[in-house]
Fold this sequence. Notes:
alpha/beta; Rossmann fold; 50% helix
Amino acid sequence: MxxxxxxxxxxxxxALRATRIATSDEAIQRKTMDLVLQIxxxxxxxxxxxxxxxxxxxxxYYTTANHDPYAEIKxxxxxxxxxxxxxxxxxxxxxxxxxxxxxxxxxAGNCIDFGPQEQYGDLETEIASAxxxxxxxDFFEKFKKTMEAxxxxxxxxxxxxxxxxxxxxxxxxxxxxxxxxxxxxxxxPIINDATMEDAIAxxxxxxxxxxxxxxxxxxxxxxxxxxxxxxxxxxxDLIIAKGQGNYESLSNENSxxxxxxxxxxxxxANQLNAKIGDMxxxxx
Length: 284
């Protein structure tokens, strides 16, 4: 997905929000915004939004000397999600269609995102709404059939906190299918995206192989990923891509990708012929 002019105010808002989290020094905040305003006109709109976002956050981290301003927020998100784990497992075990319920919960967890939004709603309310609502774009049946024929699955994670919902989905997939799953995190902290530290914190490393994609972009930008990741990307029979950033960076890639996300901005929603807040399970 290319970047649009409408994305520029969003980049500025994200830069200001991250800078204020990283430092209370208004002089540094002003310097950061001045540098972001200088660099944005030099970045081609043909780039994906995550590629431009990466350059913006590099400036924030450089000027503030804080390379993980969302660290505490990520820890809190993981702890909150972990506290809901018994309830989520009970919901799945008592549902009429455990896999569909798990997929919906996985998408509900995608609300924990501090990139395009300043805060997310009450998580339990998000969960209840997800369980009651249909998928706005529904490739669930195709997803099941593709899973049945897949021996190697690559699961591209998104955010801290959300990663616990991914753990629950992987537990269900391991129960339902005879396949090998590899879970993928970011190489280093970027916004509130999940890293290996988060995977360990929620116990994901206890049930599945977890690797870094070798990139710090807030998505999966293939030309920045490691050779190890790219080999797995090509060899996998099915790829689960969580979140709007992964959709933005991979929407023009191959048809074995299934996108699980909540639409969080008007541009993405319009491109998908959906509404902001809709739950999406899409295979291009």
